[in-house]
Each structure stands twice: as C-alpha cells, then as structure tokens.
Design goal:
Helix 1 (about 5-20) packs antiparallel against helix 2 (about 40-55). The strands form two sheets. Strands 5-6-4-3-7-8-9 form a seven-stranded mixed beta sheet, with helices on both faces. It has helices spanning about 5-20, 40-55, 70-80, 125, 145-160, 180-185, and strands at about 20-25, 30-35, 60-65, 85-90, 95-105, 105-115, 130-140, 165-175, 190-199. It has a single domain (about 60-199), classed as Rossmann fold (3-Layer(aba) Sandwich). With about 200 residues, the protein is of the alpha/beta class. Bound molecules: 1-O-pyrophosphono-5-O-phosphono-alpha-D-ribofuranose and adenine.
Length: about 200
C-alpha cells in the first residue's frame, strides 16, 4: 500500500469508527448518518484532514456547505493554507447573492453565495491558471445539495471568467442506495466526487 492508499485507509477506518446511524430521523424512513462524533476525537479528525491534505494539495479554494461542511472546509483551508468560502442557506448573506434551490433526502432548501465574493481573493489566487476549487461536505445522500453547490460554483466561476477552472468535491460518507453520485454525474460529468466511506 502506497502513502495515498495508507492515508485513505486510515481515514476510512476513522470515519467508520466515529459514525453513528439513527433510524427514522429526522423523518420516518430516513437512516441518519451522524459523523459529529468524529470531531470529539482530535486524532481521528486529524487522520481525516491528513488524507484531504494529501489528496487535494493543488486546490486554491475550498467551499464549505452549511452547516456541517463549514467545519470540514475550515480545517482543510487552515491545513492547506488556502482561502475558504461559506455556501450559506438562504437569507444569511448580505449584499447581492446567487441562489440555487434544491431537494435533499429529507426536505427542500436553498443555497446562496455573494455575487462579488471573489473580490476578497488575493490577485495571485484569482490569476491562477489551473484554478481548482474543492467543495466539501459530510454526507452525499440524494445529491441534491451537492448538485446545487456545483451549479452555484460554476455560476460564480463564469461570472469571474474562470470557466477553465476545475471543480472537485469530497464527502466523508455517501449512501449508495440513494444514488447521489449517479444523480450528479448525470448533470456534471466533469466534476470529481471523492467519498471516504460509502455505505
Ligand atoms: O445528498 P442530499 O440528499 O442533498 O443530502 C445531503 C445534505 O444533507 C445534510 O445537510 P442539511 O442541510 O440537512 O444539514 P446541516 O445544516 O446540518 O448541514 C448534509 O450535511 C448534506 O449537506
Ligand atoms: N441520511 C442522512 N444522514 C445524514 N445527513 C443526511 N443528509 C441527507 N440525508 C442524510
């Protein structure tokens, strides 16, 4: 096993150890996968960040999806020393925003980002030829959330004439039977989806 495979395998073991499933929550029929225990173990969370640090060392910007994605994106941005952007639920960001509504496994929601958010990026970051954005979140279920986030990032890149940028995504876990990956690849075949633990 090489360095990458070792990091991936350790990250997967940490996720398996720290995930708890709650049947019929928040709605009947939903099997809720709670990864929050991961944050109660510095070592296991650090193992996860070690994997992301290696896997995404060429990323210029990390986007965290509200709310659990914020924790992950912040940790990655600090480890990789790169900017982090919040993708927030509707009505939480001031100024002109871009928005995308979506349906997730247990309800509907809407994401927003500020139209002019890239003005806060450094000139060096903005002028990067191979601009690579990482969208990170905890769970890929139906893919509605991730799909909406990809659409918003694409709109933002287009508005900033960065159309040759690369978008990668990474999730801690995915629920295979809900076909989130398939739903996203149907719409975006140029986006990579990295999942540490598929159940
Ligand atoms: O693949 P999908 O079916 O779209 O569901 C996945 C999304 O659902 C949860 O977010 P949610 O908005 O429920 O919660 P949070 O605010 O606690 O992160 C989870 O964090 C993912 O973002
Ligand atoms: N089954 C699930 N577990 C945790 N988060 C989720 N978000 C959407 N579906 C979920």
């Amino acid at each position: 096993m090489d360095g990458y495979e070792k990091l991936q395998s350790c990250a997967k073991k940490a996720v398996i150890k720290r995930s708890v499933t709650y049947p019929d929550w928040p709605n009947k029929g939903v099997s809720f996968l709670d990864i929050s225990p991961l944050f109660l173990s510095y070592e296991d969370f650090d193992t996860l960040i070690n994997y992301w640090q290696y896997r995404f060392q060429d990323v210029q910007l990390v986007v965290g999806l509200e709310a659990r994605g914020f924790i992950l994106a912040t940790a990655i941005s600090q480890r990789l020393k790169i900017p982090m952007m919040m993708m927030r639920k509707k009505g939480k960001l001031p100024g002109k925003t871009l928005s995308e509504s979506y349906t997730k496994e247990y309800g509907k929601d809407e994401f927003e980002i500020q139209e002019d958010v890239f003005r806060h990026l450094s000139p060096a970051t903005k002028s990067c030829k191979n601009f690579h954005v990482l969208i990170v979140d905890d769970i890929l279920a139906t893919g509605g959330t991730l799909c909406a986030s990809i659409e918003l990032v694409r709109k933002l890149l287009k508005a900033n004439s960065m159309t040759n940028a690369k978008i990668s995504t990474s999730l801690i876990s995915s629920i295979k039977c809900l076909k989130g990956k398939e739903n996203i690849y149907e719409k975006y075949n140029d986006v990579s989806i990295d999942v540490i633990h598929e159940i």
